[in-house]
Design brief:
It is built from one helix and six strands, in the order αββββββ. By secondary structure, it is mainly β. Strands 1-2-3-4-5-6 form a six-stranded antiparallel β-sheet, with no helix packed on it.
Length: 134
């Protein structure tokens, strides 16, 4: 349980760290993702063996001193154990989001808090689409 808590908080902080040089109004970001579909489909959140890796590339543009537009494209392979190995799915997913981020402090600090709101879509390998709110 101790390892689970440590990994959980590490992943939360890693996903929140971003940098933006105020001299450049636009930029590209890259992120490694740990994709979790098993906990929502009868699996366990702590079953780290079932997490699959994904990647994200995003476009960032400062609209004002405190507002940033973030458009990430994500892709990865997901797997979910519903009841056993025979009743699971394994598929490729693609996602595209549009987010607006309000930056609380942009005075040259290396880390700054922000709030994000947006909407996106996920396309699954079989052609199914889902709406998501990041």
């Amino acid at each position: 349980m101790k390892n689970f808590v440590l990994i959980f908080f590490s992943l939360c902080f890693v996903s929140l760290l971003q940098a933006q040089n105020p001299a450049y109004k636009s930029g590209i970001s890259f992120k490694k993702l740990f994709m979790d579909y098993q906990s929502q489909n009868g699996g366990s959140l702590s079953d780290f063996k079932s997490y699959h890796h994904g990647f994200e590339i995003g476009y960032n543009h400062m609209l004002s001193d405190n507002i940033m537009l973030h458009v990430p494209f994500k892709t990865g392979v997901v797997r979910s154990h519903i009841t056993d190995e025979d009743n699971c799915f394994h598929k490729t997913v693609y996602g595209l989001d549009g987010q607006v981020q309000y930056l609380f402090d942009t005075n040259g600090n290396k880390v700054f808090p922000y709030l994000a709101a947006g909407v996106g879509g996920v396309l699954e390998q079989e052609g199914e689409t889902n709406v998501q709110i990041p």
